Every structure is written in structure tokens, then in C-alpha cells.
Amino acid sequence: MNLSLIIPVYNEQDTLPLLFxxxxxxxxxxxxxxxxxxxxxxxxxNSLSVLKEYAExxxxxxxxxxxxxxFGQTPAIAAGLDYAQGEIIVLLDADMQNDPADIPxxxxxxxxxxxLVSGWRKYRKDNVITRNLPSMMANWLIxxxxxxxxxxxxxxxxxxxxxxxxxxxxxxEMHRFIPVFASSVGAKITEVxxxxxxxxxxxxxxxxxxxxxVILDLFTVKFLVAFASKPIYLFGGTGGLLxxxxxxxxxxxxxxxxxxxxxVTGSPLFIISAMFFILGFQSMLMGLIAELLVRTYHxxxxxxxxxxxxxxxxxxxxxx
Length: 320
Prior knowledge:
By secondary structure, this protein is an alpha/beta fold. It folds into 2 domains: 3-226, Spore Coat Polysaccharide Biosynthesis Protein SpsA, Chain A; 232-300. Helices cover 47% and strands 12% of the residues. The protein is built from 9 helices and 7 strands; from the N terminus they run βαβαβαβαβαβαβααα. It has helices at 16-27, 47-57, 73-83, 103-111, 128-146, 178-184, 209-227, 232-260, 268-300, and strands spanning 3-9, 34-40, 62-66, 88-91, 116-120, 158-161, 189-193. It has a 7-stranded mixed β-sheet with strand order 3-2-1-4-6-5-7, sandwiched between helices. The chain starts with a strand and ends in a 20-residue tail after the last helix.
């Protein structure tokens, strides 16, 4: 299997026929074996019936996964990835705001040597206040915090080489952070402008509250990418900073006591200094415990702390 399309579906019964027409038109022009995995995320309309109809007509290309209830876009994508067989993975939405006709252009970019091609909805057809502006702010923040600079993390339309998607699991709203995880294992990433169409049927499933969820997930992603293998750097650094502040405050109190005869224990600064020292010491202990957990995780599962792009004349796993 060369190519797997993963398409989360939620209440898109009217859009699905248009989606299949566009997918077939695009894929018939490509000389590749392909599959489309459509994940019904607990739709309340007739989306599942439509999917079953297409799956019966074309069992060679159409696969359907149906959830018992609505779990969200990230679990739907995760399920698609678990069952995908293609060496190239393409994600796109079912609402036809992404255009399947952009897929060949993204595959051509992969052929140039990239591992991940991310779509950029440069001329986005959404509400400026409720969708575009919050998205721009979130994209700027994610790029600054993670160091992976993309204009449009929220665009589902992305193409991946399969190997850069292995080794991590998706939770929360973390499907948008896949480029960050891929970058952490050395993936070459590029971004290309893609077409974006106004929604023809139904209504958007996302509002401003999604931005808050994304920001909260960003803290998790930053920790996993930057400190998952050496948590002592985070906890120890924070603890050292708190203890340093505590020491400076205590020196100030001692100088004031010696030269100006001002009591130490009666000052609120003494209590603050003691609290900072205790918190700093506890943070360092947490860092040591986290280090033990990380070592246990890697050693018990024999999970390497590195990733290999390719090997020459080597087939034997050194851990076997």
C-alpha cells in the first residue's frame, strides 16, 4: 500500500458524496495503490449509513471505522493511524473545506525529500473574529514555544511519511502538534499553501473554547518534547532558581540584621525565603523521581532514546 487517506467524519452526511467524488477524481489520476480510512466519530445523522454504502461499493479502497460515541478529532485520527497500511499518510477533513485536489502537490513535495508537508490555508474562508484571529494567535504562540514555525497548525490537510508518526500517542487536541513530535525525531518539514473552501453544509464543530484546550495541550507538548528524556533539567532548574532566590533574600535579611539591627524572623521576607527554599528542594526531589521513572520506562520496554532514519548493511537489532 502506497498511500492511506485518514478522514475523521462527524455529522457530514450531505458532504460525504462530494468528498468521495473529489477523492476518486484525485486518486484515479495517481498511479499508486491507496486506501481511504474514514472514522465515524459517533455521528448523530446518517453519515455512517453513507459510509457503509461506499464501503460496500468499493471494499478495495474504502475502509470504515465507527466509534460508539463522539470522542473527538484526535482519537479519530489516532484510530486511523493505527489501522493505516500506507507508507504515506495523508490527513484531511470530511467537510470539503480541504481540497483533495491538493494531495498530488503535497506528495510531490514529499518526493523532494521532506518527511512532512503541512497545508497552509493562506486564504481562509472562515469567520475572521471567531476562527481566523484566534487561530493566528495560537499558531504564533505554538511556533514560538516549540520552535517549529508553521503558519497553520490547525489545517488538517497534511502528508507524512509513516516512520515519523511512530513512537508517540495522540491525546486531547494533540493531532495539531504532530509536526512538533515529528520534528523532535528529526523530520524534515515544509509548508505549502493549499486551497480552502467555505463550508457548504452543516456548521462548524469548533468554537473559541478550542483555543483554550490547544494552549493547555501546548504545555504538555513542550514538556514531552523538551524534557521527557531529562526531566531533571526542568524540575532541577526550577528548584535551583527558587533556592537561589531564597538565598538572596536570606543574605539581604542577614545584612539588614547586622548593619541596621532589624530582626530577621519577624519579617515576611523570612517566611517567603523559607517557602522558596522548601519548594526548590521539593522540586529537585521531584526531578530525581521523574528521572527514575524515565529510566524505568526506557529500560523496561527496551525503548531507545534515539531514532534512526536509515541503515546500510545492517539488519540486526542491537537489542536482540
